[in-house]
Amino acid sequence: MTTSTNEASLFVIFGGTGDLSRRKLLPALGNLDTEGHLNPRMRVLAVGRRPKTDEEFRQLAKDALGQAGLPSERIEATARRLHYQVLDPGKPEDYRTLGRRLYDLGREHDIPANYAFYLSLPPRAFPLAVAGLGEAGLNQPEGWSRLVVEKPFGKDLASAEKLNALVHQHFQEDQIYRIDHYLGKETVQNLLVFRLANAFIESSWNRERIDAVQITVGENLGVGTRAEYYDHSGALRDMVQNHLTQLLTLVAMEVPSSFSARAIRHEKIKVLQSIAPIEPANVVRGQYTAGELNGQAVRGYLQEDGVAKGSQTETFVAIKLFVDSWRWQGVPFYLRTGKCLPAKTTQIAVRFREAPVGYFKQMGCNQDTADVLTIALQPDEGFIFHLDIKMPGAPLRLERIPLRFNYNEHFEGSLPDGYQTLLLDVLNGDQTLFVHSDEVEGSWRVYAPLLDNPPKIYNYAAGTWGPPEADSLAIPERDLWQKETV
Ligand SMILES: NC(=O)c1ccc[n+]([C@@H]2O[C@H](COP(=O)([O-])OP(=O)(O)OC[C@H]3O[C@@H](n4cnc5c(N)ncnc54)[C@H](OP(=O)(O)O)[C@@H]3O)[C@@H](O)[C@H]2O)c1
Question: Domain 183-416+437-471 is classified in which CATH homologous superfamily?
Fold first, then answer.
């Protein structure tokens, strides 16, 4: 959430040749460069196991930047910042070579020893890279050293604790940036501004005024090429423990004592500590079977290449939970996510309580729905507030109208990708939109009983909104599951 004030530094991407680097990190750096947010002396060093020259890596990066739609003159300018270093994560001597390369690049380009290490590696390689950097002293250069860790951060509470312990052996918490790319989205950041800059919203943001909150992340694709990874993960680990729970903490947190990373993360941790144990009866797990999606026939999950025979991995999960705090006592929070749903959508729907006296209902008007604020994150970012108004003329009739705010329509130009925001924050040392170790562990702790004893799994046809059993979790006849667009 910072502006472009970063010092000269060396940004090191482990796994620089990989999918995430090519599709997200390099384009994000290219866009930051184009918009003038990067320090002119800043350099990027991609690290990989296969030998490559700087020039060979620049060619790979130029292709990636071209595919991301950067103009050709900007591609050339960004490519000049790029370098490459071969490194085997398991070889301690390679980290000493990396240290010497960073020193040389620093001297050549007049960059102080400020290093950001982005681990864009398969999770099994995280521990090697963390230990290698620490043992080579790259965690304590003369300037600063920051470590960026991608998701998934562990696969359960025990593995997350173990990884945190290893990372803390070598890096202090204020050096560690755990990524949840949802937090880089403009609407997520705006959620904080919306709550804290508009007193009438914050004064209504509690159990007195709010009836229910629903957080939905729908994907209109199957597991595709990630089937093997996904089959060991499932919706609860892959989506709920991180993205949906991060959104939940931002919605439910108390007003922080200041608009700082420390204060905001402290409040988010308190929310996690306040979540009541989840009743297994309030969880519906699902797995898609063959169906029709986007006008095409799709096969079922069990028929996907890489999925184990008879797999019980959930591709859908719906959860009803409660935050046991003064603010939220008794207000249900519904979390729902799934693959092969009818729409790609991420939204938070906040349902306000109905007016205490239904005057208009008594007069025969259709005032039978509560006001709903929908905060949309995907496909478009913005808000919709559904309110009742009087229709013109007689007799008295009410109509529900949407007050809409769409980011792209209101502000010129496209929104920055979440990674752009997050990389700039890393360069500026702003941890507000990164996940603290206590948040990661707190979140795994919430879901540990469900991971240890997974509730029954139900089938749903691809192209539907999950198993019908999930509908029974939502308040009868007040269902907000459906997709909204801003
Ligand atoms: N891709 C996405 O859209 C996405 C989205 C969210 C999060 N993530 C997370 O981001 C990280 C990177 O994802 P990715 O899709 O880019 O992964 P990837 O393409 O599978 O791997 C990235 C790079 O890591 C290196 N690598 C592969 N196996 C390795 C090993 N055993 N030891 C050391 N290096 C190895 C490879 O580079 P060399 O062969 O050149 O060494 C590879 O190009 C993962 O943690 C993933 O969970 C990815």
Answer: Dihydrodipicolinate Reductase; domain 2 (3.30.360.10)
